[in-house]
Amino acid sequence: MHTPRAPKNPFQAIQYPWRKNITATVFWIGEKPTARNPTPNHASSWDTKWQQNYGGYDNPDKAARIGYRPKAFTPRLNPFYIALPFNDCLNHRTHHPVAHRVIPWWHKRADKRPGKTACKGRWVQIVHGRRVCYAQWEDCGPFTTNDWQYVFGGKRPKNEHNNGAGIDVSPAVRDFLGMGWSAKVHWRFIDFSQVPRGAWSQYGSNNPFIHAHLDPDRQAKKEYMEYLKRLRDESYRKKNSRR
């Protein structure tokens, strides 16, 4: 028998590069379109029922919030969410042609079927002043969904609107960081295994802090352990065959 082919080790955390001095703007689930931002947010790039699945309107008015969530209801998804300007899916059957080449965790994606996103739910670390926040990537924007050169390649954002905004953050992220409607931030991707517990670990059916099986690298870790087991068994068989 042949020795199993070695996959990449998903237990080895990737140190992702920082995107520094990026303009962050605030968006929210249920946001209505305006002249400056014509895209409504009742749906996301990956969830046609985003507002419904969240549980309602994520009112950004601070008087309508308690802690880092809306007062009106308990959110059914993590209120710590962000948008970045790249969509890895052209439709439900086809990935973006560069996705497999530019997404650094592509080999670890849980759902390997064509048209299934490898980006939704990934974690980011965001720094503003002395505050550090963590959030999940749940939508695409601001203003564009095809800027992989910035999101994964280290270029500056292509978007020129809203002072060249390169990341949208939720009201929860805004409030945790103590920023206004727009601010300069540093951000980077981060493996879930490196995300500490905090306000971002309290809510959501999409939150791996609450549902461990949603760890985006869990399946890859399981497959790697199965590979190590096959490697061990093959070594054992070869050793016994020489006796």
Summed up, what is this model?
The protein has helices at residues 50-54, 99-102, 148-151, 171-177, 218-241; strands at 19-26, 65-66, 69-70, 81-84, 89-91, 94-95, 123-128, 131-140, 167-169, 182-190. With 243 residues, the protein is an alpha+beta fold. The strands form three sheets. A six-stranded mixed beta barrel has the order 1-9-4-8-7-10.
CATH homologous superfamily grouping: RlpA-like domain
How much beta, percentage-wise? 15-25%
Low-confidence runs of at least 5 consecutive residues: none
Structural class label: alpha+beta
**Domain module tally:** 1
How far do the termini sit from each other?
17 Å
Beta strands, count: 10
Helical run tally: 5
CATH topology name: Barwin-like endoglucanases
Describe this structure in words.
The protein has 5 helices and 10 strands, in the order βαβββββαββαβαβα. It is an alpha+beta fold and 243 residues long. The protein has a single domain (19-241), classed as Barwin-like endoglucanases (Beta Barrel), CATH 2.40.40.10. Strands 1-9-4-8-7-10 form a 6-stranded mixed barrel. It has a two-stranded antiparallel ribbon with strand order 2-3. The chain has a two-stranded antiparallel sheet with strand order 5-6. Strand 7 and strand 8 (131-140) form a beta hairpin. The longest helix is centred in the C-terminal third of the chain and has 24 residues, at 218-241. It is globular, with a radius of gyration of 20 Å. It starts with 18 loop residues before the first strand and ends with a helix.
